[in-house]
């Protein structure tokens, strides 16, 4: 069974992504990463849903529409250091906690997302900035 199936498929993934962006909108700790997104998060939410669908073993929606994600390359225009990766993970951890009841699955997804967030860092950390 794929993580996509374990999660509960399309509806569960959609709920996770919606909750993730809700936290990005309301958490003060996410202010910097929220500013990297357009005012309306609908397209960002759709793209993350599509990407995660394939990444988690479900339908390859993102690839079908946009081609290979080249995830890190697509994020190079945005300054992502440890604080930004940590803020992204804070939103994702909270979304996972709210939407994934299975503790083992939640932990596995957190680890996978943490690896993704670390991989997205493309700027060195600035001395004196919060880590």
From TrEMBL:
Coiled coil: none annotated. GO terms for molecular function: heme binding; metal ion binding; oxygen binding; oxygen carrier activity. It holds the Pfam family Bac_globin. The keyword Hydrolase does not apply. Its cofactor is heme. Keywords: Heme, Iron, Metal-binding, Transport. InterPro entries: GlbO/GLB3-like (IPR044203), Globin-like_sf (IPR009050), Globin/Proto (IPR012292), Globin_bac-like_CS (IPR019795), Hemoglobin_trunc (IPR001486). PROSITE patterns: GLOBIN_FAM_2. Belongs to the truncated hemoglobin family. Group II subfamily. This is Globin. It comes from Pseudazoarcus pumilus.
